[in-house]
TrEMBL record:
GO cellular component: cytoplasm; membrane; myosin complex
UniProt-annotated binding residues for ATP: G61, E62, S63, G64, A65, G66, K67, T68
Family listed: Belongs to the TRAFAC class myosin-kinesin ATPase superfamily. Myosin family.
MF terms (GO), sorted A to Z: actin filament binding; ATP binding; microfilament motor activity
Domain Myosin motor: 1-148
Classification via Gene3D superfamilies: Kinesin motor domain
Keyword Nucleus attributed: no
Record-level GO BP terms: actin filament organization
Species name: Fregetta grallaria
Protein name: MYO5B protein
Gene name of the encoded protein: Myo5b_1
Length: 148
């Protein structure tokens, strides 16, 4: 059981994901400010640093809801607040997302570019700094596979 944030894709850019917003949520307690993906990222980050335990953010929603974009915002939060050590693979993970999206996407009635894959992104930390990340994909809709 944990905190749930319902994110809605406004289908237009909003100034609520800028770097100054990241710093506004950094170090704040959950509930001090409006619900936001940065509030969840901050809570997970604080719990990880305070107790030294792994944390998970599960981002779920319908096609076109903005799951991939929300994951990118959370990763950007971690790298901005914690910083990166060395040549972090985080940038490679963020850069590879459009390539990963291109494979296995299909047009649906709700979204022109709907992914057929789920993604598991693991971010590595050393103390408070991001050291790298890996991304794993898994096929969600095996019924769509007709040929090799």
């Amino acid at each position: 059981p944990g905190i749930i944030l319902v994110a809605i894709n406004p289908y237009k850019p909003l100034p609520i994901y800028e770097e100054e917003v990241i710093y506004a949520y950094s170090g704040r307690e959950m509930g001090d400010m409006d619900p936001h993906i940065f509030a969840l990222a901050e809570e997970a980050y604080k719990q990880m640093v305070r107790f030294g335990k792994n944390q998970s953010l599960i981002i779920s929603g319908e096609s076109g809801a903005g799951k991939t974009v929300s994951a990118k915002y959370a990763m950007r939060y971690f790298t901005t607040v914690g910083g990166c050590l060395g040549d972090s693979s985080m940038e490679k993970v963020l850069a590879s997302s459009p390539v990963m999206e291109a494979f296995g996407n299909a047009k649906t009635t709700r979204n022109d570019n709907s992914s057929r894959f789920g993604k598991y992104i693991e971010i590595g930390f050393s103390q408070t700094h991001v050291t790298g990340a890996t991304i794993k994909t898994y096929l969600l809709e095996k019924s769509r596979v007709t040929l090799q």
